[in-house]
Specification:
The protein has 178 residues and is an alpha+beta fold. It is 63% helix and 14% strand. The two termini are 31 Å apart.
Length: 178
Amino acid sequence: MSELSTLARPYAEAVFRMAQDENDLAGWSSRVTTLATIVSDTQVARLIADPAVPADRVAELIVSVAGDGLGERGANFVKVLSANDRLTLLPEISTQFETLKAGAEGTLEATITSAQELSQAQVDDLVAGLKAKFQRAVNVQVAVDPELIGGAVIMIGDQVIDGSVKGRLQRMAFALQG
């Protein structure tokens, strides 16, 4: 995964700079997300992986599926990725673009994974705490993982706040082995 991240980073940064230059972060966010969705389709993925299909033909197909909203620069971006055999990086490019966009907008992306479904009030309380701690707006995604036993794990940026029972048990086991 880190290799994908490393390969995708220059493309994500280039698109981000272009979006900033055009003052169109939201538009480029939509374009990159659309492209990531297209290349994630199983039929398109098979086409991308097929060495018998020329790269320029794959690029044309993706541009066609994406539609007019892609624009000339978006189409050129697809062609560059295709020519360099990097179309499969689009989901990671999209993820990194969104992270850069959130940073530029002063927001953080967080994932809250809890052992049980959280009420909206609980989510709101956690978001308020994160906003206070990080002094930035926070966009959250909530997930449930019963294996946590109890509590929650919050991933925000490259930080992990593990308040789960499973995490506590693992730390105790490690300390006892110690």
